[in-house]
Amino acid sequence: MIQADTIVRSTCPYCGVGCQLDLHIRDNLIYRVGASFDSGPNYGLLCVKGRFGHDFLWHPDRLTTPLIRRNGHLEPASWDEALGLVADRLASIRAESGPDAIALLCSAKCTNEENYLMQKLARQVIGTHNIDHCARL
Ligand code: SF4
């Protein structure tokens, strides 16, 4: 059996349940994910995503920076540049076609607070009730 250099308690990023994970780390890599029986809300249990869904961390295809399509090609961009472009495009769509031409889709990987802010952005900033959540798909 592999011995961990360290075990780090963390919170599963996949949904709002907030299961506690024990990340077994060796040579700076997570090689096993477990859960403690004395820690809630999961008390030793993990679903398949929480227990096995961590190999994306070092996947070579993982996006590590925003990409903007220019002349048909995706190019790396800064967060300020990407968020500025999204804000400009949302503003122009709203001006041309009205707020209901825009819909926002939230994620179970966000916190409750982030999802709350998303519906505030939809309703109070953009002016649409077109807001939904991936858990309903
Ligand atoms: S282990 Fe499964 S149920 Fe628990 S937080 Fe992660 S995705 Fe949600």
The CATH superfamily of the largest domain is known as: ADC-like domains
Tell me the domain tally. Answer: 3
Amino- and carboxy-terminal Cα gap: 40 Å
Instruction: Specify the CATH class of the largest domain.
Output: Mainly Beta
Work out the strand percent: 15-25%
Give the low-confidence spans: none
State the CATH topology of the largest domain.
Answer: N-terminal domain of TfIIb
- Structural class, by secondary structure, is alpha+beta
Contiguous helical run count: 3
Using the alpha-carbon principal axes, give the shape: flat
Q: Could you give a short account of the major beta sheet?
A: 3 strands, antiparallel
Helix content: 25-40%
Number of strands: 7
The distinct ligands, each listed once, are:
iron/sulfur cluster
Over all CA atoms, what is the radius of gyration? 20 Å
Provide a compact summary of the structure.
By secondary structure, the chain is α+β, with helices and mostly antiparallel strands. The chain is built from three helices and seven strands, in the order E-E-E-H-E-E-H-E-H-E.
